[in-house]
């Protein structure tokens, strides 16, 4: 049964993809960085791929060699990675954590139920577990056997989880956590007298706590995080006015739902606080003077007084110059009616619902003055008053950013005077029904059209006459605008620098944009990804300044145009560039790839591609994993490629059924991963006896189904290999003598040579 399941899993990789990263923040490790950093960045990329619904990478995560990694901080943090990964579906028992020193925030906010493998991890060198499980609401497992002999900081390690006192490991602050979890008068006494001088985080510490301990004597001098500290601590109402908050950077949700709290905080030092979002959300009793707080560094106050029904204090002198988010700040603050007309809101990007359900909503003179007209218009949009929207005068507006975002309305705004508007970012983002004639708009002043029609599924109107001469950002402009297919050939794009994701998922778009001036564009990643219909000539585009072409034509199944003259000298990232571009087969032999560091998944599933790329400079490439996976037609000379810096060749030629070229001279000294490298590469049978495999740790599935391969690799150094599972499974031609291989460190060799029918047992390595 085991054979069948794993074989099906591995075969499915080549049917559905094993993907590179879709994350806009993915960075490729540069030559010269530490092995720990390289490994960490590769692991981050895998985790992001898993979060982007590519579950076949789960096995790759489980089998990842973590022995070099020293820092696992925030690895599965729900706020740091894209989406969320369900930890119960992962078996990380193979992970080597012997060199890890930091696990800070590692599982913060994760959907963590049970992780039985955690108890087997080596924690000897771990010094920091602060916030390790912070906010992982359902986490509760017995960790009493887990030892942390070097641990220094375990601040808020289990705060906001379901942990019980009986399951806590022996850590520096176990006594405090146990008291909080147990509750009661005795616990309150322990908590009140506890020495907190070394703690750096109070995040979620008293979340849902039912006690009311005296914390006035606590030493908070080193604390930086007070987020959600008293979240839903409905009984707490003690004097904490003397706390030293000079190092605190976040008070996010600190008193959220702390319905009894109403203490003086007027002298708190908030000079370093950047996040006050939801701080007093639903703190229904709080009504204290905080007018003197230093808010100069605060960037978000969203939901800060949302539902704070008693609060009505003067905040007129607050410095809001750097605040970017104020949405729902006073939503439901039914008592609040203070004058905020003088606030500097020049940096605010989002103030949706700022004063909803409060006396301020209909009292525009007390709201920040620049917002008066826009708040009125936004109110009409919320109420669905189409007539008032269509008649509204927007001639004085400079920004319409996010105006109809998420709205299901379809108002006729053709008569709007937008001549003074500079920002149309996300204006119709996720407005699924909008499809009105806006061809007459004067867009001469607009500089930002990023996300403008993102997920505006119905929009398909003539905007050919728009003046885009001042626009610098068109990133995500038609992302997933599935119906759009209009002539925009005449647009002036001379000042545009950002075009990433511009037509990503714009399934119908197939218009001539050959004349666009792209001389200043630096970002083209995922520009035509999943633009299934697009197949236009863009051979004349100036790509001199482009640095990122990641996934540019990924899944662009119709595209097959000449790109031979493109200048790629500054491109560093080509991962997934033609992934799934099943029609593409054009000459790109002259491309300058000198600065490219990542070619992983570049031709993955590019089933038609078979062009000469022998002259490419691959000196700086570190990652070639899955590069030609499923590229069934490819069979060109790569013998002169410089692979000295490549560390990952995982599945490089998997399913490359035609490939059979001489790669004997490749320098593989830096490669650590050759897993799946020739999986189902049914034609390959070339001499690779001279390869340096000294650093390779994983050869699992390497020649699985490679039915033609029969070369002498007896001289390979396999000293460091730990995994040879399925290595020659189904390699029916192979019969070379590998009996002298050093397999002392191999711990996994399941089905090593099953189905290798020509190979005698005497020639096989002897496993311990």
Description of the molecule:
By secondary structure, the protein is largely without helices or strands. It has a domain at 33-171. Helix content is 10%, strand content 0%. The protein is built from seven helices and no strands. It has helices at 2-16, 35-51, 57-62, 174-182, 185-192, 372-383, 386-391. Helix 4 (174-182) runs antiparallel to helix 5. Mean pLDDT is 91; it is low at 1-32.
Strand-pairing-aware structural class: little secondary structure
Oligomeric state as shown: single chain
Distance between the termini: 24 Å
| Helix content, binned percent | under 10%
Strand portion, in percent?
under 5%
Largest sheet: none
Helix-strand sequence: HHHHHHH
General shape = flat
* Number of helices, counting only DSSP H or I runs of 4 residues or more: 7
Radius of gyration: 30 Å
Number of strands: 0
Quick check: average pLDDT? 91
Query: Any low-confidence stretches, pLDDT <50, length ≥5?
Result: 1-32
Descriptive terms for the model:
single chain; 768 residues; little secondary structure; 0% strand; flat; disordered N terminus; DUF285
Summarize the structure.
This is BspA family leucine-rich repeat surface protein. With 768 residues, the protein is largely without helices or strands.
SSE inventory with pairings:
Layout: H1 2-16, H2 35-51, H3 57-62, H4 174-182, H5 185-192, H6 372-383, H7 386-391
Organism: Aliivibrio fischeri
Protein name: BspA family leucine-rich repeat surface protein
Keywords: Plasmid
């Amino acid at each position: 049964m085991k054979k069948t399941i794993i074989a099906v899993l591995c075969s499915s990789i080549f049917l559905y993809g094993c993907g590179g990263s879709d994350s806009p923040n993915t960075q490729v490790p540069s030559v010269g960085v530490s092995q720990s950093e390289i490994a960490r960045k590769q692991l981050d990329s895998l985790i992001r791929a898993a979060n982007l619904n590519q579950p076949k990478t789960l096995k790759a995560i489980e089998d990842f060699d973590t022995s070099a990694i020293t820092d696992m901080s925030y690895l599965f943090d729900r706020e740091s990675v894209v989406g969320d990964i369900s930890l119960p579906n992962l078996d990380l028992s193979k992970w080597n954590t012997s060199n890890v020193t930091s696990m800070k925030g590692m599982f913060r906010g994760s959907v963590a139920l049970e992780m039985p493998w955690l108890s087997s991890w080596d924690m000897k060198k771990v010094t920091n577990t602060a916030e390790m499980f912070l906010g992982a609401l359902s986490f509760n497992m017995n960790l009493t056997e887990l030892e942390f002999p070097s641990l220094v900081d375990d601040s808020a390690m289990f705060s906001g989880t379901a942990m019980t006192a009986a399951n806590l490991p022996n850590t520096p602050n176990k006594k405090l956590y146990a008291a909080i979890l147990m509750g009661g008068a005795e616990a309150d006494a322990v908590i009140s007298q506890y020495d907190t001088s070394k703690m750096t985080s109070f995040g979620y510490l008293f979340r849902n706590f039912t006690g009311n301990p005296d914390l006035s004597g606590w030493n908070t001098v080193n604390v930086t995080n007070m987020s959600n500290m008293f979240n839903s601590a409905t009984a707490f109402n003690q004097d904490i006015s003397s706390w030293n908050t000079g190092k605190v950077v976040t008070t996010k949700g600190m008193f959220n739902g702390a319905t009894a709290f109403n203490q003086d905080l007027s002298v708190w030092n908030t000079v370093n606080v950047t996040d006050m979002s939801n701080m007093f959300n639903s703190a229904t009793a709080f009504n204290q003077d905080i007018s003197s707080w230093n808010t100069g560094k605060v960037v978000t106050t969203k939901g800060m007084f949302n539902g704070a029904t008693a609060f009505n204090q003067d905040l007129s002198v607050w410095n809001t110059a750097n605040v970017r988010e104020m949405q729902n700040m006073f939503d439901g603050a039914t008592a609040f009616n203070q004058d905020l007309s003088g606030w500097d809101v020049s940096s605010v990007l989002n103030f949706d619902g700022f004063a909803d359900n409060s006396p301020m909503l209909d009292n525009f003179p007390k709201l920040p003055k620049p917002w008066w007209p826009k708040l009125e218009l936004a109110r009409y949009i919320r109420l669905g008053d189409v007539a008032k929207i269509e008649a509204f005068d927007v001639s004085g507006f400079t920004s319409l950013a996010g105006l109809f975002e998420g709205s299901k309305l379809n108002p006729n705004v053709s008569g709007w005077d937008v001549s003074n508007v500079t920002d149309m970012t996300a204006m119709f983002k996720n407005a699924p029904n909008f499809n009105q004639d806006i061809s007459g708009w004067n867009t001469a002043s607009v500089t930002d059209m990023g996300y403008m029609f993102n997920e505006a599924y119905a929009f398909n109107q003539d905007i050919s006459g728009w003046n885009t001469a001042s626009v610098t950002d068109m990133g995500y402009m038609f992302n997933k605008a599935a119906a759009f297919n209009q002539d925009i050939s005449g647009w002036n794009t001379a000042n545009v620098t950002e075009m990433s994701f511009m037509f990503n998922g714009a399934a119908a778009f197939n218009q001539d944009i050959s004349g666009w001036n792209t001389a200043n564009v630096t970002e083209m990643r995922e520009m035509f990804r999943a633009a299934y219909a697009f197949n236009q000539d863009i051979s004349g585009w100036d790509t001199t300044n482009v640095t990122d072409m990641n996934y540019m034509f990924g899944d662009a199944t119709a595209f097959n145009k000449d790109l031979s003259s493109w200048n790629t000298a500054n491109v560093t990232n080509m991962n997934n560039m033609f992934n799934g571009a099943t029609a593409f087969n054009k000459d790109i032999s002259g491309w300058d790839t000198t600065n490219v560091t990542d070619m992983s998944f570049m031709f993955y599933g590019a089933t038609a591609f078979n062009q000469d790329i022998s002259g490419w400079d691959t000196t700086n490439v570190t990652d070639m994993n899955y590069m030609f996976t499923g590229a069934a037609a490819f069979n060109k000379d790569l013998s002169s490629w410089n692979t000295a810096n490549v560390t990952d060749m995982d599945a490089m030629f998997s399913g490359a059924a035609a490939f059979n070229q001489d790669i004997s001279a490749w320098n593989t000294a830096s490669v650590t991963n050759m897993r799946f490298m020739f999986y189902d590469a049914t034609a390959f049978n070339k001499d690779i006896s001279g390869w340096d495999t000294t650093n390779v740790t994983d050869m699992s599935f390497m020649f699985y189904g490679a039915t033609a391969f029969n070369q002498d690799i007896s001289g390979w150094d396999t000293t460091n290999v730990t995994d040879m599972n399925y290595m020659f499974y189904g390699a029916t031609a192979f019969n070379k003598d590998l009996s002298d291989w050093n397999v002392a460190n191999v711990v996994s060799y399941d089905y090593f040579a099953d189905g290798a029918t020509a190979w005698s047992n005497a020639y096989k390595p002897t496993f311990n």
